């Protein structure tokens, strides 16, 4: 038991140091650009992809604690799949941004993000099924309906907003905050169902993407994204929150992983 | 361990001291003179209950009473038979309801239909099956919970695992004697049996529901916490294959109810920090809805689901 506690403490200490170091380096490189332009871009985009990758790895390790057929396995399996899609999307987007400079409004990265959303929907639907003890039979259909609403709301936003850019670009811009807000609210309901206890952690952290994306769209739509105040741009603030969102999801996943790992330790011998 | 003796009391005291040091569990049979017999149940070296059987009488007696009786007897013998704690609880029923024991001769191949028909009864029951050198117990909760447990005792084997019942059905000796003891909730000893069945069923229901929400791995930590608590409180429980089994012999149903309530609270306290109070309440409510009849009344009486 003592070893278990110290191992848990070690994991948390390591995760804290890595998280703080990543954010500090990210902010430093973003604001001071200490290296060549290419190196700075690789570090900034690489860190976002790295944070997503760490989340995907922790969630994949979490899946190993469940046997095939166990109901909660679906939750963590599809959560992990979602993060793998997002990792590849982040890496691809970072690659385009570093090499081409201007990333198209709709690219392969967006397709991967969309697949990530689908995987996350399966995960959250399964968690809903379990917390309601399958009393609500049509959660899958309700989720499909919610996604139709998300698409419709995004379309309404695109058509009601005056913009010079083409509609596909606009659609992609508005889709993410609407989708993230929807997912964030659905996740918040699970936080409420678990009353903030341990299993609420991973869902609570997903709300960080809602904050990050809504801030992003708000600031870009109002044209203040690149504003600078006392040498610090608002984009630094927003982009750091995006990195932080991945780090928080990683924290939530790590708590779940450590909980399962400690429970997986052998029981004391019974008489 | 057999010792024909001149100074019986001294011999019994010596045996008890040894059993206490070794923390043994089983039954001591003290034969007094030609017919009288004292039976002492021993759990971990302690004596929870004693029984006196004479030509006219067969009843539970206090520690003072059997000690006094021993001192007045000059001759006798003492035999210790090692048993599992679970068997001890069944032995208690057999000792207290010996008059119900109408042994019925049966073919071993008929046992399955007899036992399954017992499960359709409203009342809990214990079937004591005896072959030439082997005995077995089958405890049925009755139709209200549909639980069943079997123990097979041979000369060199004691099987309490889930496949014990199949081993009983497949036993190689063709003929056996079966005595059926029908549960009576009015009796304190039977109430203890009902409580024992209900407690184990409740634990396993909670763990099943919790595992459904969080995965089988998470059951381990609940059982581990329960075993740590049990060790500090002196409760005789085991937890293997994700199932909790209680072996404690209690002095009274009230003590059993109080202890089971504390054990269940230990489980609730392990679960609540993970899934929260609302989902824990959902689990309790679901278990409450599955529990029926006498078992539900007992659960309410001892506040096991809250």
What features would you describe in this structure?
- The complex is a heterodimer of chains A (271) and B (306).
- Chain A is mainly alpha-helical and 271 residues long.
- Chain A has one domain (2-270): Rhopdopsin 7-helix transmembrane proteins (Up-down Bundle), CATH 1.20.1070.
- Chain A has helices at residues 2-32, 37-63, 71-99, 108-131, 139-160, 167-193, 201-221, 234-264; strands spanning 228-229, 232-233.
- In chain A, strands 1-2 form a two-stranded antiparallel ribbon.
- In chain A, helix 2 (37-63) runs parallel beside helix 8 (234-264).
- Chain A is globular, with a radius of gyration of 20 Å.
- The two termini of chain A are 19 Å apart.
- The model of chain A has no long low-confidence stretch (mean pLDDT 88).
- Chain B folds into three domains: 8-82; 96-182, no CATH class; 188-301, no CATH class.
- Chain B has nine helices and 13 strands.
- Chain B has helices at 8-21, 63-72, 85-96, 111-119, 164-169, 188-214, 217-233, 253-290, 293-301; strands at 26-32, 36-43, 46-53, 58-61, 76-82, 104-107, 125-130, 135-140, 148-153, 158-159, 175-182, 237-240, 243-246.
- In chain B, strands 6-11-7-8-9-10 form a six-stranded antiparallel beta sheet, sandwiched between helices.
- In chain B, a hairpin with a 4-residue loop joins strand 7 (125-130) and strand 8.
- The radius of gyration of chain B is 21 Å and the shape is globular.
- Residues 1-5 of chain B have low confidence and may be disordered.
- The A-B interface holds A 65-67, 70-73, 130-131, 133, 193-200, 259-260, 262-265, 267-268, 270-271 and B 209, 211-221, 223-224, 227-228, 236, 238-240, 272-279, 282, 286.
